[in-house]
């Protein structure tokens, strides 16, 4: 880890001057195309019944996968959004999007998608946080199976199975036998000192560590790497958009025994996928090497009133003509706000008021 990255994790940032407005199941964002509702799966878990409800509510519009492994449904009426949330609360299951009381998870709880070893800790964390209004929606909690996949997200709180606690991407040396308990203790320690901050890096990792040192040991890292079980298939919906046909096939595969996990990389992992799953999804999502694997984009015009350009249409035309889709990740946006810019090195292709684009290579996110 670079010294600059360590300094960023430890140095407090300026205090927020506005409340967190991240949408959820019941708190929606009013976009140009209607209400936007966001549903945060527990470690990416989505049942066939939930997927069908989401797709039906989206109607002809695609479902959207976010960079935190959440589902978004756009273009809803207020009543339609309420009806969807109520229907989801009746689905049930071990890790529902909404529980029987209609409570969603207030922040994203992501987990390594390819192995079931992290499922129970992710559920325990989410269940403890459900319905709380003191947890900022921007907070990100991750449970890593030892492969380092979600560790690379530099979440506010990351626990690696058999390993250590990370705060804002920085290893702390603190360990615990119960990964869920350790993650929850770190969340509570952050909430106790956060003030109006949204993220751990805004208050500094040291402020969060202080109370944890009294209850959790600092010992040698014990690396544990779990192995995926069963047959795995990972597919990529273009720009994280899952249309009605793709959702129907994924739901059918879930009914046939596949376990569905959506990921922070806007992919869908199918554990124990049927042998013909790839063939059935061919043409609906990317099932092999694809120029779309390094591309992301904001929603653009006309669905966003602030966008200067039809971002997704322009990007599709650029891919079709070979002008987009190289090795360097590129994020296309319709204005300087650059919504959804991923972490790490990325070329931000920004729409201008004149309808053209300019490219800015960035080392990380434009805004927290």
Structure explained in plain terms:
It is a single chain. This protein is an alpha+beta fold. The chain has 2 domains: 210 residues, no CATH class; 72 residues, no CATH class. The protein contains 10 helices and 17 strands. The strands form 4 sheets. It has a 5-stranded antiparallel beta sheet with strand order 1-2-4-3-11. The protein has a 5-stranded mixed beta sheet with strand order 5-6-7-8-9. Strands 14-15-16-17 form a 4-stranded mixed beta sheet. Helix 2 packs antiparallel against helix 3. It is globular and about 60 Å long. It starts with a helix and ends in a 6-residue tail after the last strand.
Short description:
By secondary structure, this protein is an alpha+beta fold.
Structural class: alpha+beta
Oligomer designation: single chain
Strand order of the largest sheet: 1-2-4-3-11
Termini separation comes to 20 Å
Number of domains: 2
CA gyration radius, whole angstroms: 20 Å
Give the SSE string: HEEHEEHEHEEEEHHHEEHEEHEHEEE
How many E-type strands? 17
Helix content: 25-40%
The biggest beta sheet reads: 5 strands, antiparallel
Query: Based on CA inertia axes, which overall geometry fits?
Result: globular
What ranges have pLDDT less than 50 throughout 5 or more consecutive residues? 1-13
């Amino acid at each position: 880890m670079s010294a600059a990255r360590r300094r960023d994790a430890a140095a407090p940032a300026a205090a927020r001057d506005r409340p967190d407005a991240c949408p959820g199941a019941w708190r929606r964002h009013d976009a140009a195309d209607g209400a936007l509702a966001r549903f945060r799966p527990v470690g990416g878990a989505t049942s066939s019944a939930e997927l069908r409800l989401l797709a039906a509510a989206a109607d002809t519009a695609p479902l959207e996968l976010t960079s935190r492994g959440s589902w978004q449904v756009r273009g809803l009426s207020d009543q339609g959004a309420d009806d969807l949330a109520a229907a989801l609360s009746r689905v049930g299951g071990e890790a529902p999007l909404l529980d029987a009381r209609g409570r969603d998870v207030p922040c994203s709880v992501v987990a390594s998608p390819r192995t079931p070893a992290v499922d129970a800790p992710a559920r325990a964390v989410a269940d403890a946080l459900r319905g709380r209004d003191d947890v900022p929606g921007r907070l990100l909690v991750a449970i890593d199976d030892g492969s380092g996949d979600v560790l690379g997200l530099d979440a506010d709180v990351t626990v690696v199975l058999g390993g250590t606690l990370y705060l804002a991407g920085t290893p702390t040396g603190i360990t615990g036998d119960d990964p869920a308990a350790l993650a929850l203790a770190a969340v509570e320690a952050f909430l106790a000192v956060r003030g109006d901050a949204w993220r751990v890096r805004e208050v500094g990792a040291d402020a969060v560590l202080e109370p944890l040192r009294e209850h959790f040991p600092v010992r040698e890292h014990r690396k544990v790497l779990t192995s995926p079980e069963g047959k795995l298939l990972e597919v990529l919906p273009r720009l994280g958009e899952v249309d009605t046909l793709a959702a129907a096939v994924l739901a059918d595969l879930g009914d046939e025994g596949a376990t569905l996990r959506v990921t922070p990389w806007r992919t869908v992992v199918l554990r124990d996928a049927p042998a013909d799953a790839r063939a059935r999804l061919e043409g609906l999502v990317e099932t092999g090497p694809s120029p779309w694997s390094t591309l992301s984009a904001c929603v653009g015009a006309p669905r966003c009133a602030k966008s200067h350009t039809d971002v997704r249409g322009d990007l599709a035309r650029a891919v079709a003509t070979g002008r987009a889709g190289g090795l360097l990740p590129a994020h296309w946006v319709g204005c300087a706000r650059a919504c959804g810019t991923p972490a790490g090195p990325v070329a931000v292709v920004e729409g201008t008021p004149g309808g053209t684009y300019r490219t800015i290579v960035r080392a990380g996110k434009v805004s927290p």
